[in-house]
Amino acid sequence: MNNQSNGSNYLLKSTTTVGFMTFLSRVMGLVRDICFARLFGAFPIMDAFFVAFKIPNSFRRFFAEGAFSRAFIPVLSDYEQNKSELETQELIDKTSGTLGIILFLVTLIGVLLAPLLIIIFAPGFFEQQSEVHDRYDIAVDMLRFTFPYLLFISLTAFAGAILNTKKHFWATAINPVILNIVLIIAAGFIAPNSSNPGRILAIAVFIAGLIQLIFLLPFLKTMNRLPRPTWGWNDEGVKRIIKLMIPSMIGSSASQFNLLFNTLIASFLSAGSISWIYYSDRLLEFPVGVFGVALSTVVLPSLARENANKDLSTYKSTLDWGIKLALIISIPSAAGLYCLSGPLISTIFLGGNFTNFDLDMTQYSLMAYSVGLVGLCLVLVLSPAFYSREDTKTPLKYGLIAMSCNAFFSLLLVLLLIQFGVNYPHMGLALAFSMASLLNAYLLATKLIKEKLIQIDKNLIFLVLRILFATLAMIVFLIAFNQENIVWINSSLGDRILSLVFLIGCSVLIYFSVLFLLGFRFREIRIKSEIK
User: Fold this and answer.
1) What single-letter DSSP state applies at residue 224?
2) Which of the four, 48, 173, 198, 247, has the lowest number of CB atoms within 10 Å?
């Protein structure tokens, strides 16, 4: 019993720590987005900025935090467990030097080819220059300043991977707060008084990335893991990382490609479509970032260590713990996000240049995004089960399938909505993204079940049924007490905040109370043996 408690408490404590730090970051992110919405609304300048920021940010997510971290952490964990201190440090030195040079070259190419990248990822900007002249030129100018963010934040992710392997999570989790603070200062105090506010926002991204990297260096030094970069393309450990990274880059890029592909299509839709998708995606990212990413951040190093120690029992139990916790949180979160989409958007974004029309348009895409929340969270838990065993081909294959699904249904749903005269065709992009996320989670889970790493037993089925019943009780409450959008629009900001806090608080209380009454206790998902 003590072993079970120790293992579960370690992961739960680590996940809570990362989740809390990420929560602070997301709150600051919401403040940042409120500044964006109230000051610039869905103006062309924000469409251009979101594209210019999304391009390096998406590359970062699959190149650094996705593919690189998933390839680097298992190899580093193996070195930490089975190699000498000198060999481990050499791996870090050679990996940092090789990664740094490659990233510098990629960044240089990105800056030089900024006009072409905007045409590739937002061709509607170029095609519609006569209609909305500013978006293409502004986006190109911004991208030249935002693209170097890829270099800084990728090296930051490298430093964070080292810290996570050493079970140091909080510094990497709170690191994104720096980006949000810098952008809040830029958007709230500098950009409105500038003749070129778009460039101010882009420069702020550049500065934030540099500060984020510098912030983690003292922590690496404290742990005697500060890199001394050297070129190491031919090093055995580096080759091993690259071998794992290449297929992982393609596999982990699926969701990011989906977002970029949706941006591409949205660039052909009415001005504001990209901004509406961005604002709804930001609200979706709140539960995914606070819980899903936090859980994934903790689970991957744990699974990697257990795989290196050949501890299959704890490995399976850790994966089971992650899946169950993901279901407990993501299912009610998805339902709550759907039911409270209007109140959330009106409370957080409505006002200034963010109009009632923007509220309606953003709500449609948020409702569609919420459908895929469970799939997104499960993918973040299931993928580490493959990467920790240095299996990158399976996530690659399923990622490509999900990517194809998203591309097909994005085009299909948007064209159908346009054909039927619906004035919010961007909703089809969000719905296609959700469908692709659910498909990806299903494929990953099915494979793990076949490999007997996941067991579908009566305990899991009974848990899911209780979660669904408790979620249904929560939905009934929200349907009964939530008001129509017009009521929220006509209320003061203070009344909106109080009403939203009431609805969310009661929803959480009802959900967990019903779970408790149905007999659920957190000891049901304890890990069966102690994590080393």
Assistant:
1) T
2) 247
Whole-angstrom distance, CA of residue 171 vs CA of residue 301: 16
Contacts of 363 (CB under 8 A, 6+ apart): 280, 341, 342, 345, 485
Query: Closest by alpha carbon to 37, among 52, 24, 50, 23?
Result: 50
* Whether 159 contacts 72, CB under 8 Å: no
- Compute the distance between CA of residue 378 and CA of residue 438 in angstroms, rounded to an integer: 9
Burial degree of 480 (CB within 10 A; 0-12, 13-18, 19+): exposed
Residues 34/362, Cβ–Cβ less than 8 Å:
no
Q: In 235-340, which residue ranges form alpha helices assigned H by DSSP?
A: 236-252, 254-266, 273-287, 294-308, 312-339
Rounded to a whole number of angstroms, the CA Rg of the chain reads 23
Residue 427: closest CA among 214, 199, 270, 226: 270
- Please report the sign of the dihedral spanned by the C-alpha atoms of residue 75, residue 78, residue 80, residue 86: negative
Of 425 and 314, more confident: 425
Number of CB atoms found within 10 A of residue 511's CB: 24
Q: Which residue type, as a one-letter code, is found at position 221? A: K
Q: How far apart are the first and last CA of the chain?
A: 16
Amino acid at 343: P
Length of the chain counted residue by residue: 532
Give residue for tokens 């493959």: 386
**Angstrom distance (rounded) from CA 453 to CA 317:** 9
Alpha helices (H) in 371-450, listed in sequence order = 373-387, 393-419, 426-450
Half-sphere exposure of 501 (CA within 13 A, CB side): 6
What are the residues whose beta carbons fall under 8 Å from the beta carbon of 186, sequence distance 6 or more?
200, 201, 203, 204
Yes or no: say if 397 and 464 are a contact pair by the CB < 8 Å rule: no
Handedness of CA 263, 269, 272, 277 (dihedral sign): negative
Which tokens sit at 428? 């089809």
Give the span between the Cα atoms of 24 and 349, in whole angstroms: 18
Beta pairing partners, 354: 351
Average pLDDT over residues 319-336: 91
Q: Is the pLDDT of residue 531 over 80?
A: no
| Each residue's pLDDT tens digit, 42-81 | 567 888 888 898 888 877 765 655 667 778 888 888 898 8
CB 346 within 8 A of CB 485: yes
HSE of 297, CA atoms in CB hemisphere, 13 A: 34
Torsion of CA 509, 515, 520, 521, to 10 degrees: -10
Torsion, CA 108, CA 69, CA 332, CA 18, rounded to 10 = -100
For 95-150, how does the pLDDT look when each residue is reduced to its tens digit (9 = 90+)? 999 989 999 999 999 999 999 999 888 887 766 554 444 678 889 999 999 999 99
Q: Residues 261, 414: contact at Cβ < 8 Å?
A: no
Neighbours of 53 (CB within 10 A): 21
